[in-house]
């Protein structure tokens, strides 16, 4: 029987999706060991025991895995941003491929051979074009960084190796300004402060345009010494095109408020995915890894198999990024999204790129698409890119009743994807191939694009 606070030696026999090693007792009891790797022999201390599993703290690695690497980030063990820096990038890709295979076979009841190897990056660092950093004070020390896992404790950060370098420069300048002018952070000793002013620093960077946006998220419009900060940012980072103030006064975990004020430059920056230009505001959704986004969307376009004669539905279309990619080879694309602001952005993005064969509608996909079908609008191909919870069953039923020849399913959660693939199989759709794409290197997240065809 495994006991809390006792030390044990185990072989790590499997790998969890967030980089944790998995050990088994002779009776089959499971122990999760963060930072341990499959193939290693380790000494651990048990820190938590549940009915069917336990957690162990890594004390010593007796036998090292050939896949182990020294994390490039000095705060890797404490920060909640990354979970896989301790293993080689090739092994990260294998872990993600295996995760998708496990979901497809165990939940979807499909053959694992349908899953292709995960498409990775040449350089799996410095890929994120957006960062949101909480600002706080703890034991008298200013903290700017990421939250530790499952807490509001900020891990102080000088440099983040998965963010664009511009973010590091912004943080350094803002940090100096806060200290010099005694600006009060919003988070004090891990709790929200009624007197605090500065909540978050958000930085966005155009991957192809190099344009930089800085957003100060504050509880008030009144920011002392803001001109000093503006001048320091412009002088230190010439690529800055926009400095914004976002007002967020409610005591919630939601980072951005509804009101934004321009302090310098424009209220947006621009960037490209493929040949398409997109305008990005503080509140805009835009994929954080533009390199892999282009690969993901190109794969979705390939799976759609368009010849120029097809009508396509793009469910959960967001700001229209996939819709624009599909428009290159479709006769007509209809995008549906529940967020009105996203549809406004989608319409503007289509105009910006001179695309006239797309139409966007606001509402729930599971409600709007059946209405479109009743209007006599039917799709030859349907693309879905739902949130983490997957597609509503009513939407899948409406799609199946319409009987498009192909469905392209883009997913950020392999488990809900696999569930929906099983549902679609019952509705007469065969899964042809499942392609994972590594949108978030150094983390356990993986994006997947899947092709399904109507069974004859």
Compact summary:
The protein is of the alpha/beta class and 456 residues long.
Describe, in plain words, how this protein is organized in 3D.
With 456 residues, the chain is of the alpha/beta class. The chain has three domains: 7-63, OB fold (Dihydrolipoamide Acetyltransferase, E2P), CATH 2.40.50; 94-122 and 286-454, Vaccinia Virus protein VP39 (Rossmann fold), CATH 3.40.50.150; 131-280, OB fold (Dihydrolipoamide Acetyltransferase, E2P). The protein is 25% helix and 31% strand. The strands form four sheets. Strands 6, 7, 8, 9, 10, 11, 12, 13 and 14 form a nine-stranded mixed beta sheet that branches. A seven-stranded mixed beta sheet has the order 19-18-17-20-21-23-22, sandwiched between helices. Strand 2 (21-24) and strand 3 form a beta hairpin. Helix 1 (89-106) packs parallel to helix 9 (414-426) and helix 4 (290-304) crosses helix 5 (321-327). The radius of gyration is 24 Å and the shape is globular. The mean pLDDT is 94.
